[in-house]
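Subgroup meeting minutes
Present: P.N., E.W., G.H.
Scribe: E.W.

1. P.N. recapped why we're keeping a running log of single-chain structure predictions: easier to compare across weeks, and new members can see raw inputs and outputs side by side.
2. G.H. added today's entry (382 aa).
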Amino acid sequence: MKISRRNLLKISGVSVLALAMVPRMALAARNSLRSIRTGVQPGGKTRLVIETTIRPTYSLSYPDGQLVVHLPNTSGNASPKLASGTLVKSLGVSPGAQSLDVIVNLNKSIAPIQKSQIMILEPNGDSEYRLVLDFAAGAGTVAANNIATAVSAPAPTKKYTIVIDAGHGGKDPGCIGKGGTKEKTVVLAVAKKLKAKLDAAGFKTYLTRSDDTYLKLAERASIAEKRKGDLFISLHANANPSRSMKGFSIYTLSEKASDEEAKKLAEAENAADKIDVSGFSDFSKDIRIALSALQQHAVAEMSEEYAVGCSKTFRSAGIEAQPGAKVRHAPFAVLRSTVPGALVELGHLSNAAEEKLLKSDSHQNKLVTAIVKSIKNYNFDV
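Output recorded in log:
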């Protein structure tokens, strides 16, 4: 029997304890790249085959003259095998901290690859899992950075639940811009706009706070659990010692920060709990309980997929990105739950120009539109 990642997140009680007793390495195996090759199909189509040790998840993007296949939670390298007569000029692998990209340099432009031209084949004989993509030239061109996420669903088939967390609040203002703009005010305004648009799009949505209320980080994570969220979005605005730094950034949960800045940001956000009069306490038992390794793997994988898609959607909407990795990772307390999610830093209040943008309705609406699109593109069912 096959169990979807989404159903794994619903496992609880005795099942969780039983799963937790299985060795971690047997459950939380990281995917490995085995081979990359091309071939020619009837009708002059080019076939790209990416072989991995476990069933892959992926997303596709189309920079100028390229096809990029993003593989979360995957490592490794492989010597490409190129057939003659294809649209592929060359193949390369670009590894990241917790993922890798297969870079396909093309002889001619291609249109976004349709789902009907994508297959994932089960292991067979000497072959392991194979992601197979067929494509041809002449069906239209793709503008730079125009994104087609192959694993996305066109429209929700049921009312998925989105929990929106406006960071900080009450006695915790978050960061404050030079012009006096408070992070807690900006993110609450964006959260309310986002809820309204997601409601109109057919999603079920909840806010962790709808007014200027202080919540501990564990409470925010607990709300996502209690509401049986399918996705958790924590909204924040950033600050940087360099007043010139600007742009959005997106983070997922990891025990190890992807860089020093991510580590410092997580420490700053996690410190919000320490201002509570009762002191900094441990998470409640149901949140800090050791999840099964299988659940952890599923949550991390699904969070990474959403974060990558959200980052691409922001960029394609013309929203400026902070220099550096497209998606970063850090041990954010607010993301510790069985609900897949991401922390979105909408911009820098420490930058005067971006502070003005973040206060404006037009820019807030632009941010909201991009987030809604990223949620619509996210595949909830895999």
